[in-house]
Amino acid sequence: MTKANLYIVLILLFSIWSCSDKGNPIICNDAVDCTGECGGNAQEDECGICGGDSSTCISFSNDIQPILNEYCINCHGSSGNLSLESYIDMMNANSVVIPGNHTESSLWTEINEGTMPKYSPKLNQELINKIASWIDQGADDN
Which residue has the higher pLDDT, 43 or 134? Predict the structure, then answer.
């Protein structure tokens, strides 16, 4: 075998060897979970965290709106300057809620300082902390 033929054979062998791991892709017939695993069972929690534990997640509809309904809606219903009757109304108001930053959100500031609610009992620290956590988690409509 000539040197030229040897090089050709080596190049062909190298090409075959280097492509051997590029065979047919595995086809997933099962659902892909939130991690991208075929047939996996990881799911997003209420906060949208893949594989997260919903026990620490604050839900707007289950946790925050009931607080607003009990303590705030009497004054901040649909007929006033600020409506807290729905997520959309609240989020359309300027700086009431700044997702990810409860200390800059007037909803938390007013409640934490005790200036709100004016005519209802003040919120206890557990409810104030829940509102802060929800804002810090991104203030999602979940």
Answer: 134
